[in-house]
């Protein structure tokens, strides 16, 4: 804020500090400037908790309660990407009767875990509303490391989008050489003959749950919430 005004912080505090201001009040003024600066650096997308973490990482010791109070005083709140678009469009003519749900344990309970990297992975598609239209992002997440090991972006969500994400994981050695299980929803990209053929040729066993079962998305949800809400600037791309 001081930089935008073309003045030093010391000059700002001398101007803002009336006679008799307590040390606590002075400290609060300093924190207001720190919070405002970090908030602008995040493109106004960092919330109370994230701002607290960022400030403490910089050596500015402050609690979440204080940051929340200051945000209220400054009348600022984190911006969120609210546009919605359906990315799971099933193809009723697709042949998927041979694809089982391999994310179930011996008792039939969902098990989205893995002990060996590259053996059990999940994928999904998310989207971003930009000034130039929709941008689609396909990802591949390793259930052993919880890391994104493959991704792809395009202006459409046709089958090559998801193939390219898995191809990135393969090309970087993120798929186990003896084969891997890849779980997804029943979107037409994943049930297409083109995708099924590609998986079969790369030692990948497809796995799918039932159509419309939201619980199968849990292992991917946290990443996408963070990606959509915090890591993408709402500016024209």
Automatic annotation (TrEMBL):
MF annotations from Gene Ontology: nucleic acid binding
Entry-linked InterPro entries: Integrase_cat-core, RNaseH-like_sf, RNaseH_sf, Transpos_IS3, Transposase_IS3/IS150/IS904
Pfam families cross-referenced by the UniProt entry: rve
One annotated GO biological process: DNA integration
Domain Integrase catalytic: 113-237
PROSITE patterns found in the cross-reference section: INTEGRASE
Family matches, as NCBIfam families: transpos_IS3 (NF033516)
Protein name per its UniProtKB record: Transposase
């Amino acid at each position: 804020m001081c930089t935008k005004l073309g003045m030093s912080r010391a000059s700002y505090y001398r101007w803002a500090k009336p006679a008799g201001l307590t040390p606590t009040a002075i400290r609060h003024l300093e924190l207001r400037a720190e919070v405002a600066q970090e908030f602008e650096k995040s493109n106004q997308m960092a919330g109370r908790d994230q701002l607290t973490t960022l400030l403490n990482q910089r050596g500015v010791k402050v609690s979440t309660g204080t940051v929340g109070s200051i945000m209220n005083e400054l009348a600022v709140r984190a911006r969120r990407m609210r546009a919605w678009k359906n990315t799971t469009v099933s193809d009723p003519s697709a042949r998927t009767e041979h694809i089982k749900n391999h994310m179930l344990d011996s008792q039939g309970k969902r098990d989205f875990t893995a002990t060996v990297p590259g053996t059990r992975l999940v994928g999904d598609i998310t989207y971003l509303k930009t000034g130039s239209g929709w941008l689609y992002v396909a990802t591949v997440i390793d259930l052993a490391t919880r890391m994104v090991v493959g991704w792809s972006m395009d202006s459409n969500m046709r089958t090559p989008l998801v193939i390219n994400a898995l191809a990135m994981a393969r090309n970087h050695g993120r798929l186990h050489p003896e084969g891997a299980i890849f779980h997804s929803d029943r979107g037409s990209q994943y049930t297409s003959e083109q995708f099924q053929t590609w998986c079969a040729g790369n030692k990948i066993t497809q796995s799918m749950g039932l159509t419309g079962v939201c619980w199968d998305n849990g292992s991917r949800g946290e990443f996408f919430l963070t990606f959509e809400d915090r890591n993408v600037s709402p500016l024209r791309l």
